[in-house]
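Run log // design_07
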């Protein structure tokens, strides 16, 4: 009976959580609208004006094209950074020798400003797409490596010893023993990485690309067009939030099923 009650309560809990999120967004928009009406300045456009421009730019303007270009750069840099950062982090977490050898390199990259990496990439390799994506990936790799290194250090070795005692192959051990323990760290690195990557991509586009959301924001900054700056920013944030809801959360729930 308690199980059935819990199953009935789950949809209500989900609906309540959704209502709270929607209410929070509605409250933010209402406060924004009231503040804009009170200030009555072109430097703080109202929420209604921004959403009208957002809809117009989606239908008649270049927003969707530039948004697609930026998302392609985000995806490329994110995949490269996650793949390399995960591999480096696991190796460093499993080997004390390699960790001691390259820890200072990791600290250096973690503290090197993103702007310096971007400028150096453009100076050394030119204003190319590869330089832009590479600069973004280099900024993200050390963060991913640090997170996965901690995950590799936290692995329960008793599971690996049990797998070895039953003569489980390396691939099956990696897939069924090691990776499930690393999933929380991978998703933590992915979430923080996506937030970092898209911000750095905008800087890369602002400094050295001729399209993308960052390039458009630079143009509107020169025109002091705050309404379009906010419209492009909101469009991009909505897409990132959609990725969180539609991709990250379902994948995380699926990866954590073994814990239940």
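design_07 sequence
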């Amino acid at each position: 009976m308690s199980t059935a009650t819990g199953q009935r309560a789950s949809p209500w809990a989900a609906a309540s959580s959704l209502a709270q999120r929607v209410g929070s967004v509605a409250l933010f928009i209402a406060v924004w609208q009231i503040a804009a009406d009170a200030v009555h300045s072109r430097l703080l456009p109202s929420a209604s004006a921004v959403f009208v421009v957002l809809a117009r730019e989606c239908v008649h303007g270049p927003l969707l094209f530039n948004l697609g270009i930026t998302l392609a750069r985000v995806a490329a840099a994110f995949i490269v950074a996650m793949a390399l950062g995960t591999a480096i982090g696991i190796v460093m977490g499993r080997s004390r020798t390699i960790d001691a050898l390259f820890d200072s390199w990791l600290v250096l990259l973690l503290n090197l400003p993103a702007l310096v990496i971007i400028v150096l990439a453009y100076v050394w390799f030119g204003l190319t797409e590869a330089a832009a994506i590479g600069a973004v990936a280099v900024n993200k790799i050390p963060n991913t490596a640090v997170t996965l290194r901690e995950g590799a250090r936290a692995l329960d070795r008793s599971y690996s010893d049990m797998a070895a005692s039953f003569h489980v192959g390396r691939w099956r051990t990696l897939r069924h023993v090691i990776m499930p323990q690393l999933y929380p760290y991978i998703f933590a690195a992915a979430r923080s990485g996506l937030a970092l990557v898209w911000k750095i991509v905008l800087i890369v586009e602002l400094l050295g690309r001729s399209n993308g959301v960052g390039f458009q924001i630079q143009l509107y900054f020169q025109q002091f067009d705050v309404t379009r700056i906010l419209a492009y920013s909101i469009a991009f944030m909505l897409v990132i939030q959609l990725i969180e809801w539609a991709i990250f959360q379902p994948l995380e729930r699926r990866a954590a099923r073994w814990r239940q």
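The chain is about 85% helix and 0% strand.
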